[in-house]
Every structure is written in C-alpha cells, then in structure tokens.
Amino acid sequence: MPYTPLISVIIPAYNSAAYISDAIASVLNQTYQEIDLIVVDDGSTDGTLEEIKNFKDSRLRYFTIVNSGQCAAANYGLSLAKGEYIKFLDADDLMNKDHIAAMLKAAIENEGDLILCKWARFYHSVEDAKFGIRPEWSSFDNSIDWFKAALSAGPDMLPVWQWLIPKRIIEISGGWDESLGLGNDFEFSSRLLMASKGVSFCEAASVYYRSGLNSNMSTDVSPKTFMSVLNAIHKSAKVILSETSDAEVRDAFATKYFSWLITYYPFLDAAIVKAVEAKIKELGKVNYPYKWGWKFQVICKIMGWKVARKLQFYYYSKRYNI
User: In terms of residue numbers, what domain contains 77?
Assistant: First the structure.
C-alpha cells in the first residue's frame, strides 16, 4: 500500500471575497487528494464566508472567529489540523496542481526537514509570474546555512507559505506569535528553521504570490506596524543567535535591522533610531545595497542615509500627494 498521509492546508482569511475562491480551488484541485483544508474566516465583513460556503467538498472545513488577526486565525486552524504535515496559504495566493504531491514526496525522502517550494509574484494573472533564481532555492543539511543563503541577497520576508511542515516540527517550534502583525512570517520561519534538521528544496512545487493589493499591510507606516516588524526581528535574532555566533548570520541581522530603518524612516522616533543603530553596530556590518537606485545611493554617500531618505520622502509626497 502506498503511503498517503493526510495534509492539512490552513487558509486564514479576512475580507478576501474577491480572491478566496481561487485560493480554495487551487487546493481542492490538487493531484494529491488526501487533503484536510481548513479555512478560518477572521470576522470578515465583505462576503468572504459566503464565497467559502459555495464549495461543496467534504475535505473543506470552515470556521468563523471574532476578528483577531492573521496569527490568531492561523493558530485556530492549526489547533484543528488532523494532518501529519501542515501547509499554510494566504487567502489571495495560489499553488500549482502538483504542489502537495511534489512536496510530500520530498518530505518522505528527507525526514525531519522543512520542505521548500519556489514562489513568484503576480499582479493580474499567474502567467505574469517570473520565478527567476534565488540563492536559497536549494537543499541544505543545516538550517542556519539556508538562513544565510536566504538573506544573502537582502532582507527576505521568509514567508511561511513556502514550507511544507512536518507536524512534529511545529510541536517543537510552537505556532504563530499572536503579538505580531507584519513581520510574523519572518519570526515564525526562524523558529521553524531552528526546529528542523535541514531544508529540502522542491523544484516542482510553486506558490503564486498575489501583489499590488491596496489592503496589503506592507504599505502601512503606522507605529503599530513598524514596531511589529522590529519586534519580529528582535525575536528572530534571539532564537537564531542563541544557536550560532556565525559572523555571516550576525551581518544578516545587521542588514535586516538597517533595512527596517531605511523602510520606516523618517516616521521613527529618534530614540528608536539610535537604539537600532547601536544594535547594528553591535551585530556586524550591513551588506545589503540600497534599494532605491543610483541617485539615492549618491546622496547617501554625500549626505548620509537619513538626509537621503527625507529627500526621497519629500519627493514622493509631492509627486503623489501623499
């Protein structure tokens, strides 16, 4: 008899009526059929639940909770999961038809590893997605080596939906940190990595990551949002640097902190900026090239990154009336 374990796919959803049907269909249409699909509606007000109810498939279970945030919704789904393996998927993203079959095969062949898929952004159609090449899209016997590769080209968000996760790894790592909003994937993936034996890359599995939505939290510059990202970096650094003093890892965190400064300045309190700059100096050196073109880099070299960022913010505020 072939080994056909149950795979739990968890989709937390909030006001996702425009896209949730596509996400659900991409799971139920998998070539591998032993699926336990759990959709948790996080108190939506736009008809998301009605879209979910249109599906008549015994493999789909759906639940509604009082609006509590993505992490709480994902943890609620996790508490109900019956599968030996866990897969998270955002409510507006898609997976290819052989995704679960391919990842399960890799998981069986590489017991104790996190299984990694490739992913690409799309805006209107998955045909627009371009996968390219990423340094972490390979197999690593050591999870810290994978982490270094992932951050070698700049501060990666480490999305949790890129993994197929053996349930026993989550039993070690724990679930989502409900104190976090933006940055939650980076923190959770850090704990998953430290609980795994290594990382095995599955070339045949793809996630299509929908971008360009106005509701995306990544466009929010409120104090709650940027402090959530900072706290996620703090927590990740604590977990990973407790396991290694590797200079490349320390440099990766220095770079991650600096990217946070560049992203949210000049909205930051001066005391916070000073504290993060001290943390960067303590950790190591910043390797990430500035991500705003050659003009920005020239101003940085002449006048410093703070002046460059203020000038950039002023330019965009005038150009786009923000």
Answer: 7-216
